[in-house]
Structures are given as C-alpha cells and as structure tokens.
Amino acid sequence: RARGVRKLQRLKSAFEACPELVIRNGSDLKHYRAASEGIFHFLKRFTPCVERLGLDEFFLDVTEKVAEFLGKPVTLSSIECYAEADGFATHLYKGRKLTLVETQTGVKSHVPARTSTVDQCNCGCHRRLQIGSCLAKKIRTDLFKELGYTASAGISVTKMAAKLSGEVHKPNQQTTMLPAYVPDFLAALRVRKIPGCGYSSARKLQAEGVEYVSQLRALSQKKLISLLGELIGSRLYLLCRGEDNSIVKPRGKEKTMSEEDSFLGSDNVVDVELRISQLLKGLLERTDARFERHGDLPSLLRLTVRDRVAAKKKGEQKNGYFGGRSSKQTAIPMGVFHPGDPKRDEKLISALMQLFFKLVPRNLCFHLTLLNVAVARFQPFGGASGNQTGIDSFFHTAANTSSRNNEKPLISSKRDRLESHNFFSVKMKVAKAEVASHPSLPRNKSEATHTNNYEPTKKRNRNKDRVAEGPAGSPGIIVTTDDAKVARPSSAVTAEDIDDLFNL
DNA sequence: ATGGGTCCT
DNA sequence: AGGACCC
Predict the structure, then answer these.
(1) Which residues lie within the region annotated Disordered (predicted)?
(2) Is the CB of residue A98 less than 8 Å from the CB of residue A92?
(3) Are A45 and A498 in contact (CB under 8 A)?
(4) Better pLDDT: A146 or A482
(5) What pLDDT, in 10s, does the model give residues A396-420?
(6) Of A464, A428, A462, A424, nearest to A176 (Cα)?
(7) Over the range A159-175, which residues count as b (16 or more CB within 10 Å of their CB) and which as e?
(8) DSSP A433-481
(9) Beta strands A174-176 and A152-156: pairing type?
(10) Distance CA A24 to C1' B5 in A
C-alpha cells in the first residue's frame, strides 16, 4: 500500500509501482472463514442481533442494549469511561463543506454547508448514540485485546447511516453520526456510494445525468422505479433522503456453499474434469465439517462456467466483467453427500460432468475461464428422514435452525418502530476487521491446502515465483490486498469483565 | 476483475 | 437460470 499498490490493481501497474512484489496463484479462504466466524461469535456476546456481510463486515443492532444501559445508570457509567468531553467516544461527525457540482447535463447541485451543529432531534437519539458510541469503543477495544483485530466502526440510527459513517475515519477508528446530519452527508456522495445502488443502477442513473445523491432526490419515485425496477427504485427513493427502514438481519447457517477458480483458459474435457474434481474436493471438506456440526447435507448441485467468448460478448454489451457466466443445476438424492458413501466422489463428479455437457454440448468447442461448483438446499439428514425435497421440509429446516441457534427472529414490532424518523435503534457496523495479516493466516501458498494441484508441477506456483500463470499483466490475474494492520493480542479480558457489562 | 455470498426477477 | 446487490 505504501508503495502505491492498490486493491484490484492490474498486475502490470502493480509491478511498476513495486517491482519486488510477490503474487501467488489461487487462494484458500479457510483461514479467513475461521477468522470471520471467530469475530462473529465474539460480537454475539454483546448482542444476539449480528448480521454478517461478507467476511469482514458486521452490523449490530444494539437498540436493546442501549435501552438497558439507560435504565441502569450504574452499569452505564462503566462503559462511559470511553466517552470524551462531549459524551461520545471518539469521532462525532460534524458535517463537511459541500461543493457545488456541475454535471454533464449542466445540473448544478448540492446543499449549502450546515452551520448548526446541534442535534435537531428531540427523540433522545443523541443520548442513545452517545451510549452506542461507547459500546462500539468497548467492543473494538475488546476485539483487539482478545482476538487481535483492529476495526473501524460507524454508529448511527440506520444501517445505511452506520455503514457510511464507518468510512469517514478509516483505519481503526469510529464515527458517530447524528440523524440530523445524514441528509447533507448523503447529498454530496456519488450515487454509487449508496448501499443498494450497484454498478448497474449507477450506470442507468448516469445515463440520466444523475451522478450525485442530491440529484437523485430530484427524480420522482415513479421515474426511479421505471428506471431501476420496483425494488431497487423504491428503496433508492427513500435511501437518498436518508430514510432506511431495513433491519439488522441475523443470518443463520449459509444457504449455499461454493468453490470456484478462474484461469487463463481450459479447452479440453480432461482438464475440466480435473478442475471440477479439485473444486469438489474443497467443497466436500466444507460440507463434511458442516455435517458434523449441524447434521445437514445439501440436496442441490450446481455447476457454473464462464466461457471466454460468451464473456467477451457480454462484456461488450455491458462493459461488466461478471457477465458471461452460465449455470446448470440439479437436485441430488438425499445422502449422496454423506461422508460415509465410498462412491460419493464418483457420483458427484459424474453428476457435475452431466451438468457440464448440458452447458457445453459435446460437439462444440469451448474456452472456459472459470468454473464454480456450488451446493445448496441443505436439509437435515438423520438417515431415516426419508426423501423429502419439498418446500415443506425446507421451511421446517429453517424453523429448526432458528430456534436451535437461539437467533433473534425478525420482530415485527421493531420494524414498526423503525418506520418513523425518530428511531429507537442504534445500529453499528464494525467494518473491515483487518484479518489480512493476522498471524494465524498462512504466510505462503505452501501452507494452503487447496492449491492448484492439477497443474503440471513446472507451472505450479513456487514461493519465489512472481506470477503463477502467464506474464505480468496478463488478464485474469489481479492484485488484491486489504488494509493490513498487524495486531497482536495483549492481555486477555476476562469473561467476567464482559458479564459485568452485558449480563444485566 | 477474485472468490465468495444474499436476494429478486 | 440469470441478474441485481454485498464484501
């Protein structure tokens, strides 16, 4: 990073910036999954309502915790050691200067800079956010002490505001945003910054001359819906005004599991089968581990491919990389995934090859650049649970899962409360746990179990190699780095410290 | 332009 | 099955 290497940078320019850069082929997410799970469980000690987004981002709804603290001043004072003179822990967002922007269409936009810094809300959220910010500080402090990760956090009254607040002061800091500041803060952002306005929507909006959130507000709800569809359109209509009624959704077990690999090209069936069996191998390790823990097995198998030709066509249409994938899926009889089945690999590879030939007819040439094997529709498997694949048993599974994990159901009364402006909730995001350089993560490829073993030894990556396949700058290889902070656990906080604060 | 995921159409 | 979104 210090040398100018950035995430998702082309290899060519990364090597220009840093010639001694070492690039490794492939990846093994195992250690990151484990780290993420550790953080997830850590966070659940503070509140059961934790939503995970990707591996390193979490939302916590601490509404109830904050209410408890408010009701117990003695306990409250114990986390207020984190408060500063203004009652908030570290950064309180104070607004920023807004510049007037002239866009392609000549629309001039933006609101004047705010002059007042007082909380304009009388609902008591000011106080609740003070407590929330102390709670966030406490959680981040403990996270570092116990697990060794630094994190940034945003604290506000909606998920969106919390998420965006977390980006204001970035490495290892936190920012609290009062609701009164949210609309102006949003106004000056590019629309793409709004969570929910992705690549596709941002392009459609750009075609209308809309680049900034302030301009988005000029569009009627009807217009937005016709442009972006019912769901995203109506959501964005509210989000751009700072209105976010989404709830923190504690997720249960994963619904799908997949392994994928991209490569410069594969054009023969033998190679494809080798790659597929490698992917399957990694996937089965995961389904086995899950079966041991939860006793369920998948009943759906999916293969997806990306063909270079098709991908290029799509790419021309959309100027987007993720086009050009196609998939076939099939129900799989219960129990095929059972670790005890000695013919399991055979059966599954055979099924996958059948899917492959549905995707790529035998008489056609192909040039694949990606393969993905996925499983889904996990169902409890006790051996005698019959052959249910219907929707009924699916929902039965979901219900069991929820009660077993003691997860918080989606409470409708909470949703009702969130529909007004004066939110009771404090939502917090602990973002970007900087797991990339944690000592427990593998330092080189040789420690990873899921290597590209199917490649000829000569071509396989060695530690000294800079690039595994192709010359520097060849397509298909990119640099991905994350903010890296080497964090070492110091003296552990005792369980009682936590209980003191949270078992009220 | 990775290697995962979620949910909606 | 594909397409949007998220990291």
Answers:
(1) 435-491
(2) no
(3) yes
(4) A146
(5) 333 333 333 333 322 222 322 232 2
(6) A428
(7) bbbbbbbbebbeebbbb
(8) --GGG-TTS-SSGGG-S---TTS-TTTS--TT-S-SSSSTT-TT-EE--
(9) parallel
(10) 23
> What's the CATH number of domain A31-250+407-435, 3.40.190.10, 3.40.50.2000, 3.20.20.80, 3.30.70.270?
3.30.70.270
CATH 3.30.1490.100 given to domain A256-404: yes
Please give the structure tokens belonging to residue A47.
Answer: 């509140």
CB of A327 nearer than 7 A to strand B: no
Q: Is the pLDDT of residue A270 over 60?
A: yes
Asked whether strand B has any atom less than 7 Å from the CB of A200, the reply is: no
Q: Determine contact, residues A247/A415, Cβ cutoff 8 Å.
A: yes
Residue A347, phi then psi, degrees to nearest 5? -60, -45
Q: How far apart, in whole angstroms, are the C-alpha atoms of residue A197 and residue A236?
A: 7
Nucleotides of C under 7 A from a protein CB: 1-7
Q: How far is CA A449 from the centre of its chain?
A: 24
Average pLDDT of the residues in A245-267: 93
Residue A263, Ramachandran bin (φ over 0: left; ψ between -120 and 50: alpha; else beta) = beta
Q: Which residue has the tokens 């899950």?
A: A290
The pair of three-digit structure tokens given for residue A382, joined into one six-digit string: 């006790």
Which residue type does A444 have?
Answer: N
Q: Three-state SS string across A109-162, please?
A: ECCCCCCCCCCCCCCCHHHHHHHHHHHHHHHHHHHHHHHCCCCEEEEECCHHHH
- pLDDT band with cut points at 50, 70 and 90 for residue A467: very low
Where do the structural domains in chain A lie, given as residue ranges? 31-250+407-435, 256-404
- State which residues between 42 and 81 of chain A bring their CB within 7 Å of strand B: 54-55
C-alpha dihedral, A7 to A8 to A9 to A14, nearest 10°: 60
Check residues A78 and A503 and name the one with the higher pLDDT: A78
Token representation of residue A244: 């976010």
What SS3 state is found at A228? helix
Residue A184 tokens read as 């102006």
The 8-class DSSP code of residue A296 comes to E
Spatial distance between the Cα atoms of A244 and A103, rounded to a whole number of angstroms: 27
CA atoms within 13 Å, Cβ hemisphere of A8:
1
- Residue-level length of chain A: 504
Strand B close to A495 by CB, under 7 A: no
